[in-house]
Amino acid sequence: MSSLFTLAFPDNYSHLQVLRKICWYLVLSPHDPLQSSLLNSTLEDKNLGEIPKFRLLLKQLTTMEVIQWNTLWETYQDEFENEKNMLGGHLGEKAAEDLKQRIIEHNILVVSKYYSRIIEETCKAAVSHSPGSSITLSGFASEDVNLIR
């Protein structure tokens, strides 16, 4: 016996609002195999073509290139802040901080593909991190990357 499962949204919500929220939650999720798989699957959704800014955002996170935080924030800050008017409300109190952290994590993964040893200050510059700020990269160091202080 089969059953039919249908998601019902109020008439004033579109599938694009739901897709936008999915994109934000994927971007805000820590990198792991499930997040990566869902991100790639969402990128294949044909409806994402209707919201090109979000397609580009997901594409940036699947491409092994360093993302400049300031440029990304300038591009997406209005979209980010506009989420409070969308389905599900605002993204949360710490969401902007989490987004920056996810971009730093992405950049460290990129840097680790190219370097096996890197000076910590050089790494901070490469991952778009402000010099002299309180972040410690040692928590991100892996077996593949040796941070030199």
**How many separate domains make up the residues?**
1
Distance between the first and last residues' Cα: 63 Å
List the strand order in the largest sheet: 1-2
Q: Structural class of the secondary elements? A: mainly alpha
Question: Which blocks of ≥5 consecutive residues have pLDDT under 50?
Answer: 1-7
Average of per-residue pLDDT values: 76
Compressed to H and E, one letter per element, the order equals HHHHHEHE
Organism: Nelumbo nucifera
Protein name: PCI domain-containing protein
InterPro entries: PSMD12/CSN4
Question: Overview of this structure, please?
Answer:
By secondary structure, the chain is mostly helical. It has one domain (15-148). It contains 6 helices and 2 strands; from the N terminus they run αααααβαβ. It has helices at 15-28, 33-43, 52-62, 69-82, 95-114, 120-126; strands at residues 117-119, 146-148. The protein has a two-stranded parallel sheet. α1 (15-28) packs parallel to α3 (52-62). The model is unreliable at 1-7 (pLDDT under 50).
